[in-house]
Amino acid sequence: MSLFTKDYDYQLPEELIASRPLPVRSASRMLVVHRDTGKIEHRMFSDFESFIRKDDLLVLNNTRVIPARLFSDDDRVELLCLDQLSPTLWRCLAKPGKRMKLGHTLKVGGTTGTVVEVMENGDRIIRWDQAVDLEKHGHLALPHYIGRDDDEADQERYQTVYAKQEGAIAAPTAGLHFTTEILSRIDHDFITLHVGVGTFRPVSVDDIEEHVMHSERYAVTQESADKINAAKRVIAVGTTVTRVLESLASDTNRISQNAAMTGETDIFLHPPYKFKAVNALLTNFHLPQSTLIMLVSAFAGRELTLEAYRLAVAEKYRFYSYGDCMLLL
After folding, report:
1. Which one of 32, 79, 169, 172 is at 20 to 30 Å from 198 when CA atoms are compared?
2. Low-confidence residues of the chain: pLDDT under 70
3. Would you say 160 and 60 are in contact if contact means Cβ atoms under 8 Å apart?
4. How does 95-119 read in b/e, with b if 16+ C-beta sit within 10 Å?
5. Predicted pLDDT of residue 200
6. Fold match flag (5-65+144-328 vs 69-137)
């Protein structure tokens, strides 16, 4: 176990970062890690169903990514819409921030926005004179490591096939591998967690216990909670599902009988955390020294996790959002 950020590092050649998805969603490679034995297998995602048992429940995040990136009509300001407070009021990240002072105005698609508050963390509260049409003027906020702006193909491929509840800035990428046909053959259910801007923020402290985790909104129906609690083995699709389930878990239930079905979670899962709700995890490969690789290290152990990443690099797996995946059993 280590609480130092530097101990969750690995070297990744830039050419292994996937800038675009594969032509077929389910064509990804899948590294399978057996936590009990330490065995690591090189498989394909098409093999995923062979690891599913009769009484398993797959839990997925049905959040839908919104086109939250806006550019002013004069191209001098870029906004990332973080949270819609009302139809005409948004909390945003602004770049360059020095231009967006209190009272500053800008136009997006002819709609005028005014900075009505500058928050302590630098976020801006912007009031618009009418609702901004994100579908018409917004862009998907692809992660910076993809190294390009969004295009028409991303409108489909940066969404899961089951995306439903609008509100995420980034996709729950472990779910991008699934097709409706595959899901039709596996018992599954959904939770919702709207992936926020914290996904892009690195750990900037040496001691991981000093890191302040971002907060994200979640929702779980009572019907889903009952089904999750009754499952013999829960397979979480992605770190977002894992964070929700572990936030709501008690010592006796995967989802506590007293848990709020909607709310916000800022849970930070890192070694030596002991998981209560999740029995297996499907996830993509994550950035070095990120909170997400720390979560995986808590689930599988730091040494085994880093060995899996070393093998993935050596075997030239595709990394990050549009990349290959890893199944931890």
Report:
1. 32
2. 1, 199-200
3. yes
4. eeeeebeeeeebebeebebebeebe
5. 62
6. no
Residue 199 pLDDT: 66
Give the pair of three-digit tokens for residue 28.
């990804």
Q: What is the pLDDT of residue 41?
A: 98
Whether 214 contacts 266, CB under 8 Å = yes
- CA nearest 237: which of 29, 33, 62, 24? 62
CATH class of the domain comprising 69-137: mainly beta
- Burial label, 257 (beta-carbon count in 10 A; 0-12, 13-18, 19+): exposed
Instruction: Report pLDDT for 156.
Output: 96
CA distance 71 to 103: 18
User: How far are the Cα atoms of 137, 157, 191 from residue 163, in angstroms, in the given order?
Assistant: 21, 11, 11
What pLDDT does residue 269 have?
95
pLDDT of residue 278: 98
Spatial CA neighbour of 114 closest among 162, 77, 69, 151: 77
